Structure formats: C-alpha cells, structure tokens
C-alpha cells in the first residue's frame, strides 16, 4: 500500500514538473496562448481544465472495463463534453465577467488534447487512485504554466497583476502605463507566441542542463 | 444577404481575424504538421473541407433541430442550449468519419493524400472553434454567411500553416540555438507572423 502511495505521489509530481503538459509536452496550446493575457483568466481557465480532467479521468477509470477499444475516443469525447458543459454553466452563473472574457475557450476544453491524452494514456489502464493522482498533477501543472505566462504577459503588457475575484494590483511605476507607454503587444496575440516561445526555450535550457549534470 | 457582406465575412475570418494568428485555434497541427510545405498544404485542404461541411451541418442542427424542438417542448428556443457542445462534437467526429469513408470509396488518390491527417482533424480546435463562433456571432445566423465564415476560416488556416511550413523549410538550414530548436523557434516565428497579420486590422469594417 505504501509503495502504491509513493507511485501515486510520483505520478502527481511528474504531471506538475517532469511531464508538464504545456511547457514539456506542448499539449493544450490553444487555450495556453489565448487566455494568458491576464493572470485572472489564466487561473480560472486552469481551474476549469483541472475540474474537467479530474472528472474525465475518474469516469474513464471507473468505466475502463466496459469501454470497447474501437469506441473509446468517442466515449472520452462525450464524457469530456458533458463536464465541460457543467463547467461552462457554473462559470456563467458565478463568474460571468471572466466567462465572457474566456468566450469560446471554455467549450474548446472539449478538444484540448491534454485531456484526451490523459484518458488514453493513464485512465483507461489504471485504477481510480492512480488516475486521480495523475489528473490532479496534470491539472496543477497546466494551471501553473498558464499562471506563469499570465504573470509575464499581464506584467509587461498592462503593468498590473489581477488575481481572480480581486481588483488589479499595479506592479509597474505610473510612468510605465501613462501615455500608452505600456507594451500593448504583450496582451495582443503576437505577445502570446513570443512569450510562450521564450518560456519554452528557457525550460529546454534548464532541462538540458539538469540532464547534462545528471549524466 | 448581399455579396459584399459575404466578401466582408470571408476577408474578416481569413485575414483580419485569422483563426491561427488572432484566434489561437488549431495551434497543435500548426506546430506539429508544418515541417514540409506539401504536408502542410494537404492538412490545410483537409481542414478547409471538414470545417466547411461541419460548419454547415452544425448550423442546420442548431437551427432546424435544437431551436424548433426546444420551442415545441419548452416554449423557449434557448432551453436546449446545454446540448450544443455535445451535439457539435458528435457532428464533427461523425463528419470526419463520413468524409474519410466517402473519400476512400470515390476519390482513392485524395484519400491516400489526406490519409494520416483525417483522424487528427477531430481534435483540431479550429473546427469546433469555427462552429462555436458561427453559433455566437450575430452576422452568421443565416446559412449562407455561416458557410462563408466556415470556408473562409479553413482558407485562413491553410494559408497560415503553408506560410509557416515554407519558413520552417528554410530554418532547417540555419543554425538555431539548441534550446530554441523545435517548438521554441516555431513559436517565435509564429509571433512575428502574427505581428504581420495584425497589420490587416481594420480591413473590411
């Protein structure tokens, strides 16, 4: 039992760091680029995706002996679509403003390859405990990656940092935001590509260093 | 619906609000299948085809089945809206399957050309994204504008992925820093391309 707990813990931490879905596996790129223009959007998106991946892994893992291999993708997609609908309606009810800003990207969690990938790689083959540990790890890793990008982009683009449910906190001197001197490009689409490219390069550099050090 | 407004919708979605560069849709194939121009062009054609067909079919399902059914049962056309996402993804998955079977039977050469890409398209968010935008936007509530929007979106995606592949074929011969190789440099190039595409802002309005 202790050993199983250990492997579950490893499954969890792997999802956050070593197999980070965004920065290492490069999965779920579309929401990563689209919603990281503010920290608030990024964290809410991460939370919604975490909820969906946890529930989808739970259901898939419970049904794993009933699902026939040739219809499995369809079952995964329908399970995910159901929970995305729940997440979407909940956000519309309790966080209307954020849900308007995220727009189509909440329903687009359905085709987020990160979630189908977890169902296919882990949940269909493993028990509930392991699948849940994996889902929480991946969800947290996704949220963290989005939050990192959100902090960089909002900091440089708008000079503020906004946590969900709070007013924006100014983190740059007034001269930065006055007279439109802020780097508006960081909030616009090109900034998303440039920031993600730079962050992926830094992560690659760190990984190559640590692998070189270990070898 | 005048021809001018249809052209406006087409230019709007293909250039100004390009699905890849300003809508962030279909990034996975955009990064994954853009190593060679011919592969990228094939993927672009397959996506354009599926996006147009699914755009039309989801429009038909929403306006001819969901709204009337909900009106008949609940006296309110919006009551069944929670079924939309499940309906959309079912339509896209089965459209891809149908297109695959149809091509295999009637256009074998095209099928072998598209072959590998077709199953991948189900999880291409450009398709679901275009269907969702058609459903949300007030100007695409009729069939013809909806079809134009879907086709324009597909053409925009094809253009973006082909341009990217052309650039990546050249990048292969230049010395890129080791940590940037692969996804890093592709994302940076995409950022510069997106910067170029923001130059279209304001056209067609």
Salient structural properties:
heterodimer; A: 215 residues; B: 205 residues; mainly alpha
What do you see in this structure?
The complex is a heterodimer of chains A (215) and B (205). Chain A is mostly helical and 215 residues long. Helices cover 68% and strands 2% of the residues of chain A. Chain A has one domain. Chain A contains 9 helices and 2 strands. In chain A, a hairpin with a 7-residue loop joins strand 1 and strand 2. Chain A starts with a helix and ends with a helix. The model of chain A has no long low-confidence stretch (mean pLDDT 84). Chain B has 205 residues and is mainly α. Chain B is built from 9 helices and no strands. In chain B, helix 1 packs parallel to helix 8, helix 3 crosses helix 7 and helix 3 runs antiparallel to helix 8. The longest helix of chain B has 38 residues. The interface between A and B is large, with 43 and 42 residues.
Please sum up the structure shown.
By secondary structure, chain A is mostly helical. Chain A has helices at residues 2-16, 29-34, 39-62, 72-94, 96-102, 113-123, 128-158, 174-177, 189-214, and strands at residues 160-161, 169-170. A two-stranded antiparallel ribbon of chain A has the order 1-2.
């Amino acid at each position: 039992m202790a050993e199983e707990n250990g492997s579950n813990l490893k499954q969890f931490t792997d999802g956050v760091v070593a197999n980070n879905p965004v920065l290492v596996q490069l999965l779920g790129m579309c929401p990563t680029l689209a919603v990281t223009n503010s920290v608030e959007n990024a964290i809410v998106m991460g939370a919604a995706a975490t909820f969906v991946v946890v529930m989808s892994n739970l259901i898939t893992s419970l049904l794993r002996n009933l699902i026939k291999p040739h219809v499995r993708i369809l079952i995964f997609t329908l399970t995910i679509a159901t929970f995305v609908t729940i997440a979407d309606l909940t956000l519309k009810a309790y966080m209307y403003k954020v849900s308007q800003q995220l727009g189509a990207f909440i329903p687009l969690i359905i085709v987020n390859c990160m979630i189908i990938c977890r169902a296919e790689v882990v949940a269909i083959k493993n028990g509930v405990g392991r699948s849940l540990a994996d889902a929480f790890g991946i969800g947290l890793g996704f949220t963290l990656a989005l939050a990192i990008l959100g902090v960089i982009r909002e900091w440089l683009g708008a000079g503020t940092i906004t946590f969900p449910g709070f007013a924006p906190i100014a983190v740059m001197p007034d001269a930065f935001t006055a007279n439109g001197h802020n780097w508006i490009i960081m909030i616009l689409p090109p900034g998303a590509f440039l920031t993600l490219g730079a962050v992926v390069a830094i992560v690659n550099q760190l990984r190559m260093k640590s692998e070189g050090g270990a070898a | 619906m005048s021809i001018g407004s249809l052209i406006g919708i087409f230019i709007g979605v293909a250039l100004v609000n390009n699905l890849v560069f300003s809508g962030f849709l279909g990034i996975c194939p955009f990064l994954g299948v853009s190593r060679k121009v011919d592969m990228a062009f094939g993927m672009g054609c397959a996506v354009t085809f599926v996006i147009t067909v699914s755009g039309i079919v989801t429009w038909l399902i929403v306006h001819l089945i969901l709204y009337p059914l909900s009106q008949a049962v609940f006296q309110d056309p919006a009551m069944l809206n929670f079924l939309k996402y499940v309906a959309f993804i079912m339509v896209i998955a089965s459209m891809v399957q149908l297109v695959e079977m149809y091509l295999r039977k009637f256009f074998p050469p095209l099928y072998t050309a598209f072959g590998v890409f077709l199953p991948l398209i189900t999880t291409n968010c450009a398709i679901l994204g275009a269907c969702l935008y058609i459903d949300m936007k007030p100007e695409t509530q009729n069939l013809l504008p909806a079809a134009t929007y879907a086709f324009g979106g597909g053409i925009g995606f094809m253009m973006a992925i082909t341009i990217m592949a052309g650039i990546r074929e050249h990048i292969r011969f230049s010395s890129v820093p080791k940590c940037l190789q692969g996804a890093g440099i592709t994302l940076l190039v995409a950022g510069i391309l997106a910067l170029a595409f923001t130059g279209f802002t304001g056209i067609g309005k």
